[in-house]
Amino acid sequence: MRHYVGGGFDASGAPFPLVDPTRGHVVGEVPSAPRELVDRAVDAARAALRGPWASWSPADRARLLHRVADGIERRFEEFVAAECADTGKPRELASTVDIPRAVANFRAYADLLAGRAERSWRTATPDGRGALNYTVRKPLGVVAVISPWNLPLLLLTWKVAPALATGNTVVAKPSELTPGTACLLAEVMAEAEVPTGVFNLVHGGGADAAGQWLTEHPGVDAIAFTGESRTGSTIMRAAAGRLAPVSFELGGKNAGLVFADADLEQAVEGTLRSSFTHSGQVCLCTERVYVERSVFDAFAGRLAAGARALSGYGPMVSAAHRDKVRGYLDKAAADGDVLAGGGVPRFSDDRDGGFWVEPTVLAGLPEDHPAVREEIFGPVVHLAPFDTEEEALALANAGPYGLAATVWTGDVSRAHRVAPALDVGTAWVNTWNLRDLRTPFGGVKASGIGREGGDHSLDFFSEPMNVCVKL
Ligand code: NAD
């Protein structure tokens, strides 16, 4: 586990332990970047902005992104193994979602570059000769990319790829809990001959560590962050002094709406997936489901049976996160009904030392209960009935977050009425987490600032400049 700064690997800094969440054992060490190394990374990224990188054409950059994607594909199995080791997620998930999406992130932005057009206008002038206005898109400069532990490589590359596509240089800091695939990415960047200083990687924590030092650094021109809403507020304060632009993908407390006219089997299957994928540790997971009263008991019974039958799921990422999730479960069990799960699975082997929580279905809690209001980020979903479409919308739209929602209905008019009325960045109808990388992605309210995806990312990571030429 090494930092990658100015084109060189570096292991300086006090080591912190890396823990296998599946068994709870310490399995390695990661160096925590000292402040001086963070400074060097920002300096290297700044120097690279003035180097040959500045004159690379979009086509050159697109070819580079494809080389990085090729490099990840060549070492696919190593990436899958590293992601599983750090997060404890099932191999099936890492090999079908995390690592392929990281490859797709580089390819998508490489391809999108080719279709980018700069706009121009012919402007009338009093002398009749006119003027030509056109826009030039410039990189923002040095971009800090700070990412969380749940989809480590997917979310890191979701920002690194468009940042490089638009000609920026990057200092990336992955979550201190999951540094493995970022280390491999640095090796791939070196193999792909990314120019010196264009991509840098530093490890370490957030507060009083690499994360904070990066966000406060006067040499960092913009910050792209995915993580908790509270951390977003802290980072925004750090960026405010120098008015550095931020792009934030933050927390959620996503609602699902199940109408009586839905295909119930499909709604149950979809909710099992949307609530329990990666043991609920995906920002888009559904943590509260509102079900039309006439089908509530049937839906609840089938969902609970489905949750009890789940196997092959992974643990919580850390002991601290397991304790947080269990804290919500204890409160929920005291105040409401546990329809499925609520406990800890037993394996009778060394996995019993890991950070496991059973897939859990709750019901009967008031809407202001912490388990219904706050993001748990674990395998926990709460069910509540509703009577009318208006009530369903009001319930879904309540609360501080607005990341995503899912609507299950067989009525096409209702689908088009309800989905756009949800206060979220993404609403899915009769599906969940179906992503097209060209579409806008982000959240409203406490779930984020700005949009990423497709042109939205390329717009965030570049600044349009107007040139006006009098003819
Ligand atoms: P987190 O906010 O604790 O940490 C995220 C990153 O920020 C880590 O790299 C961490 O070291 C760093 N960090 C922490 N404090 C910092 C500080 N003061 N200054 C600078 N950096 C700091 O989040 P997490 O626990 O790693 O991830 C889970 C959260 O991420 C959940 O809230 C989840 O909803 C959210 N998330 C959102 C999306 C999305 O797309 N909206 C995607 C995935 C995860």
Strand order of the largest sheet: 14-15-16-13-12-18-19
Could you tell me which ligands this complex binds, including any ions or cofactors? nicotinamide-adenine-dinucleotide
Q: State the helicity in percent bands.
A: 40-55%
Number of helices: 15
Coarse morphology: globular
Q: Please name the CATH architecture of the largest domain.
A: 3-Layer(aba) Sandwich
The first-level CATH class name of the largest domain: Alpha Beta
Poorly predicted spans? none
Secondary-structure content class:
alpha/beta
CATH homologous superfamily designation of the largest domain = Aldehyde Dehydrogenase, Chain A, domain 1
- Summed up, the domain count is 2
Q: Within the CATH hierarchy, at the fold level, what is the topology of the largest domain?
A: Aldehyde Dehydrogenase, Chain A, domain 1
Radius of gyration: 23 Å
Could you tell me how far the N terminus lies from the C terminus, measured between alpha carbons in angstroms? 57 Å
Largest sheet: 7 strands, mixed
Number of strands: 22
Provide mean pLDDT, rounded: 98
Q: Strand share of the residues?
A: 15-25%
